[in-house]
Write a structure and sequence with these properties.
Helix content is 23%, strand content 16%. By secondary structure, the chain is α/β, with parallel strands linked by helices. Strand 3 (54-55) and strand 4 form a beta hairpin. It is globular and about 55 Å long.
Length: 279
Amino acid sequence: MSGFRRTLTVIVCGVPAAAGLYAVAKVVPTGTTARPAAATALPRCPYLFGHGGYSASNDQILGLNSVKAVDAQKSKSADGVEGDLRFTRDGTKAVMWHNITTNGLTGRSAVVRNSTWTSLQPRRITRGPYKGERVYTFREWLLELKKQHLQGLVELKFMPQNTSAWHELATPLRSTGMASRVILYSTGADDHNGKQIVNAVRAKIKAGVLPKVRTQYSPATTKNDVHGVGWQTALKAGYYGLFVDSGLRSTATGWTRDDSQSAVGFRRWAVGRCARPSA
């Protein structure tokens, strides 16, 4: 998403907001013999997606669009990674980059959609935790997710309406086998046309141009957009809504640098309360 700091997005999949999620054991009367009763099945834990963007306050590149960034989220116990997909000139290459321009990369500033893939390849990130990393293609990013057994939450920042762009979106999803592990969404970050982008994607799925993939329109102004608060706050308040159309009863939220609000903190809290979703 168009975040301004590094966050961990929590996708809440049907986990009750109320307390009392512990497994319950059957009580056996004194003096009787009985086989141990199986505990009640635990509800599924939320999916946790690593999320980053561009920090305007300190001019840092935080987007999780590189191999190093994906690997870092795996080490933090995330279930998936949120990335930012853009297209080069005429939709000829799908690339993973958060900003509209090449701000944050070596070389002169240029608008990504007006740049060629050849011109982007030599550039490197100049600041932030992923300094030195290059711009990766959508296919390369998906392959790293696959290698790390992670899911992908992909924001379409801009979607050219031409054959080349749809091919660049469809081919990596098919060739990597990651279509079932990806959610394509848009907030309309660039041109305020997120709904049109998502509707166009759904039409292409229906026509067979794109493989079957989950989609969602997520307006940045929605009252359910709770980025910036920790997973504890979101879970207790019962925030739901951002990714309902994807088939996940869910929300998105951020986390602070406080370890208790990170994926590590969530995993500790979740023991005995909910079961981690399968990869």
